[in-house]
Amino acid sequence: MYDIKGIREDFPILSRTVYDKPLVYLDNAATTQKPRFVVNTIVSEYYSVNANVHRGVHFLSQQATDLHERSREAVRKFINARSVSEIVFTRGTTESINLVASSFVCSQMKPGDEVIVSVMEHHSNIVPWQLQAERFGIVLKVIPMNDRGELLLDEYERLFSKRTKLVSVTHVSNVLGTVNPIERIIGIAHDYGVPVLVDGAQSIPHMPVDVQALDADFYVFSGHKVYGPTGIGVLYGKEYWLEKLPPYQGGGEMIQKVTFEKTTFNELPFKFEAGTPDYIGSVALSNALGYISMLGMDQIAEYEHQLMCYATERLKEIPGMRILGEAEHKSGVISFLVGNIHPFDMGTLLDRLGIAVRTGHHCAEPLMHRLGIEGTVRASFALYTTKEEIDALVEGILRICKMFE
Ligand code: PMP
Is 363 a residue of the active site? Predict the structure, then answer.
């Protein structure tokens, strides 16, 4: 039994009002709300265990270190990594991709070598590669998609050359909701001996993820999109690759021995964790993962799938509705336009009805270009979203349509 009422009670913010109307929060792809359990963790750790980790001999420092490292183990278990050495804490998806882009390109690539991304990437999986392209003369190649928003795998395979060194692709599109066939994408790349980075920002909250079963070389995600706090995220990397890559930033924690002549680096994963880590955030993140594990990722996926089908059906009842992205496998997100109503007008008027959606290019301008539009309205769901909220969205859109008649 999926106890939606009980679940919603775990998220205090869901019972607030905006403009004297019940909040209908449909901006979960941007960030998710936090259960009481996660917020309480932050408060209680600051009040009772706070001390810098790893370097202290005193009681609190050891306790904080213990909690932090246990959180790493919880993340390892959640995505089924082989070892905690493969779990690097970062600030989020963006920093994780920048880390790989920076360390991989400078150590594994030469001018003219190629990275493959897809047309539906978030800017954070485009711009880091472009920064490296400017510095090291590497080349970006782009997997195209069909009009339903599905990547063209034949075209993808044709992009490989002797110079292809890395594929970096999103698991789920934050605009179209497309669930990409990531196992096949990884399988094809591996046939060419090329490693794959998976942007898991939009998959980790919605489906079980097993990095070993996927055989992903790198898998990255943000804590705040999976019911955890902002400011913490994860880079999973196969030990084989993390060992090969040089450090991303220098400072404390990541060193073994420092002299003015030569510095040696700490073992994995600390080699990539310069400075004081977010040891409170890591514990809160592990509790967020604990919370959703308790509900069951399969149950969450099933519940959200039903919501997605319901929302798609209901939205299609609206005259002039155009849904962007009609892939066979979708998750979490529905982008749409209605008649000639500008997405910004739609978003602003929905907001006045208490309904929070996102409008604009969703940090995916090349995808907007491919679709021939400037932006969309995006409704995105979470484990606490209800059918009643989807009904409120549909009624709100119909009301706004009337105003524009
Ligand atoms: N990739 C995708 C697919 C995303 O949806 C997002 C966030 N919208 C990001 C990357 C960036 O995540 P963050 O801002 O948490 O680093």
Answer: yes
